[in-house]
Amino acid sequence: MKYRPKPIVILPARQKGVTLLEVLFALAILGGLLTIASLIYSGYRTKASETVAQEDLRQAYTSAMTFFVDFPQRTLTRADLEKYGFQSSPRIETRIVDGRLASLLLVSYSRLSDSKIFMVQGLGTGFAGAKGSSGPTSGPGAPGGGLSSPGPSEGNPGHSLAGPVIQPINEPGRSRCSDRAKSELQEAFAVAQKYFAKEPGGSITKDILMQYGYEPSEEINLLVLNGTRPSLELSATFSVPGALNFRIDSSGSIRQG
Questions:
Q1: Is it the case that residue 47 has pLDDT exceeding 60?
Q2: How far apart (Å, rounded) are the C-alpha atoms in residues 41 and 45?
Q3: Res 71 pLDDT > 90
Q4: Are residues 139 and 191 in the same domain?
Q5: Domain total of the chain
Q6: Is 19 part of a structural domain of the chain?
Q7: Are the beta carbons of 180 and 246 closer than 8 angstroms?
Q8: Can you give the residue range of the structural domain that contains 113?
Q9: 171: which of 10, 143, 156, 178 is 20 to 30 A away, CA to CA?
Q10: Is 141 exposed, middle or buried (0-12, 13-18, 19+ CB in 10 A)?
Q11: Do 56 and 154 belong to one domain?
C-alpha cells in the first residue's frame, strides 16, 4: 500500500481590519490639507480682486483727468466718470471722496472681505492740461474753494511722471472720508432747518429732505434716526469698509456714532 501524502491546504491570510483610530487620523490629515488649500485659494482670490480694484482706480483716474481737461472748475461726479469712459468691474466699488481738481481723491475696493482699500490723489491745481488752468494754484482764487494743493511734480504723492500713484488708503485718506460724511450731515441738517421753518411740528424723512433740496450721494449712507425737531438726529457713513459713523443732533453738534 503506497503512502499518499496529505495535500497541503493553504488557508487565506487573516485580513487585518482598519481601526477607528486610523480612520480618524486619515480624516484629520485630509481636513488639514483641505484647510491649507482653502487658505491658498482665498489668498489668491483676494490678490486677484485687489489687482482688479487697482486697475479700476487707474481707469477712473484717467477718466477724471479727461473730464478736468474740459471742465477744470467743476466738481467730478460718478455720472461724469461714466460719461468719460469709466466702467466699474463686477464686485468692485469705486468712490469719489473729493471731486474737485485741486483736491481730487478717489478710492476703490473689492466687495470681498479682508480686501484692501486703494486710493489715488489728483494732480492739484497745477494740472497743465486743463483748459483755463493758468489761474492761481493756491489761495482764494484757486479752483476748489481756496484749497492749496501742490503741483504734479514735487510734494504731491498722488501722481508721478509714470502716472498716478495707487496705494493702500492711509490715515489722511480715511480722515478725508470722515470729513465727507460730516459735510453731508451739515448739508442735510441745513435742509432740515428749512423744512422745520415751514413745518415746526412736522417730522422729517429722507424723502422730505430731497423735496427740500437735499441731493443724496452714492458715496454716503445717510439715515434719519429721529425726524422730529426737538429730537432730530441724522446719521452718515462714507461707503467704504471700516468707515466711521457720525451723527448730528438738533443743536447741530456732530459726534462719532
A1: yes
A2: 6
A3: yes
A4: no
A5: 2
A6: no
A7: no
A8: 50-169
A9: 143
A10: exposed
A11: yes
Residue 192 has pLDDT above 80, yes or no: yes
Contact call for residues 111 and 93 (beta carbons, < 8 A):
yes
Residues 199 and 143 grouped into a single domain: no
94: nearest Cα among 66, 123, 53, 63: 53
What's residue 76's pLDDT? Answer: 95
Residues 224 and 113 in one domain: no
Spatial separation of the C-alpha atoms in residues 190 and 76, rounded to whole Å: 23
Q: Exposed, middle or buried by CB within 10 Å (0-12, 13-18, 19+), for 245?
A: middle
Q: Are 136 and 114 in contact (CB under 8 A)?
A: no
Residues 136 and 61 occupy one common structural domain: yes
What are the tens digits of pLDDT across the range 232-246?
A: 999 999 999 999 999
Residue type, 93: E
Of the residues 169, 204, 230, which one is the last residue of a structural domain?
Answer: 169
Same domain? For 98 and 151 the reply is yes
- pLDDT tens per residue across span 101-115: 999 999 999 988 788
Buried/exposed 70-94: b ≥16 CB within 10 Å, e otherwise: eebeeebebebbeebebebeeebbb
C-alpha dist (Å) from residue 178 to 36, 187, 212, 256: 38, 14, 25, 10
